[in-house]
Amino acid sequence: MERFQRVAARSAKAHDIRIRPINLKAFAEDVELVWNVYNSAWSRNWGFVPVTRDEFMFMARDMKAILEPGLVLLGEVRDKVVGFALGLPDVNHALKHANGRLFPLGLLKILYHKRSIRNMRVLVLGVVEEYRTAGVAAGFYAELFREAVRLGYRGGEMSWVLEDNTLMNRSAEALGGKRYKTYRIYEWN
Q1: pLDDT, tens digit (0-9, with 9 covering 90-100), for 178-189
Q2: Helix (H, G, I), strand (E, B), or coil: what is residue 47?
Q3: Which residues of 45-64 are buried (b: 16+ CB within 10 A; e: fewer)?
Q4: Which residues make Cβ contacts (< 8 Å) with residue 40, sequence separation at least 6?
Q5: 35, 107, 131, 178: which one has the fewest Cβ atoms less than 10 Å from its Cβ?
Q6: Cβ atoms < 10 Å from Cβ of 7
Q7: Has residue 1 got a pLDDT over 70?
Q8: Closest C-alpha among 83, 86, 71 to residue 137
Q9: In this predicted model, what pLDDT tens digit does every residue of 18-66 receive, in sequence order?
Q10: Residue boundaries of the structural domains of the chain
């Protein structure tokens, strides 16, 4: 982690990068900025379909209840948002205790076990192409790690990283991560 912190600090200085948490008081404005980055950062991914503003805002409002502001980060270069990272508590730990049932006791079990979640998931991390090698991602990793430790998380997962995303895969390995699942998508013509 020290290496990522050094890279993040050097990059922040060299490229005027600032990593900040989402502002819940200006939630709609920040989500709008993230939406633009999302559609830009993923535009070259296989099978990507741009998300409409309304769809993105709907998903963001749904997630707001479980967001930990320090785990939702925006990367800015000279006040322009160029990337974002979304980390969430790994609620799968709490959900498995409900055995697929919310009623009559499933919801109570989820709420009870929610307190013992010790892992987080980085669901989304993206940087616009122009700044992918500028150190924005290193800043995200360093800040997510620092905040996760502060919040008491002991482990984490980076979800759905494409196998040809060399930068993300190398970063995950440098952080001590190991690939434990591989999904394949096949297309028939």
Answers
A1: 887 777 778 888
A2: coil
A3: eeeeeeeeeeebbeebeeee
A4: 128, 129
A5: 178
A6: 17
A7: no
A8: 83
A9: 999 999 999 999 999 999 999 999 888 878 899 999 999 999 999 888 8
A10: 2-84+120-174
Sheet holding 17-21, edge to edge: 17-21, 72-77, 80-89, 119-127, 155-158
Q: Which residues contact 88 (CB under 8 A, 6 or more apart)?
A: 63, 66, 67, 68, 71, 120, 121, 123
Report the SS3 class of residue 141. helix
The DSSP 8-state label assigned to residue 45 in this structure reads S
d(CA 126, CA 74): 10
At the second CATH level, the architecture of 2-84+120-174 is 3-Layer(aba) Sandwich (3.40)
3-state secondary structure of 51: coil
pTM beyond cutoff 0.85: no
- What mean pLDDT do residues 149-167 have? 81
